[in-house]
Amino acid sequence: QAVPAGSHVRLNLQTGEREAKLPDSENGRSDTREERRRKRYRGAVDVDANSFTSQELKKALAKMKESEKAERKVRREFPAQEEEVRKKFRPIEQLKEEFEKLNMKMETDYEIMVKLISKFNSSASTLDEKVAALYDLEYYVHQV
């Protein structure tokens, strides 16, 4: 169960239940940051828990850009590390070629999912085949 930020959460060892309590303010009322924000914008803006202000989005985007710049800088400063990673791992195309030489076909999850969907949509498939395709597809979709 999701609880508001700033809540006090504990595990009751006698009952085995998790308990949550909103923090108390000085006046005996408990206002979370979210509740204060809603009161401030009440009527003026639709403050949905899943929506963000433009300032919040700009800050998040700025942080993403900063981290991307830092990552590029690390790549320029430490090209040996990237080369070391390339030595440890091979590209998927090369792996596919090697498996084909061993008479084994390697498929990505995406390729398998496309095959299962086409089997499910096929009119030639029996009901049992369609059910099996749905079970297999559920496994791959669950990973995503």
Automatic annotation (TrEMBL):
Compositional bias (Basic and acidic residues): 16-35
Protein name: SIL1 factor
Coiled coil location: 57-112
Keyword terms of this UniProt record: Coiled coil
Annotated region (Disordered), positions in chain: 1-42
Organism listed in the record: Tyrannus savana (Fork-tailed flycatcher)
Keyword Coiled coil: yes
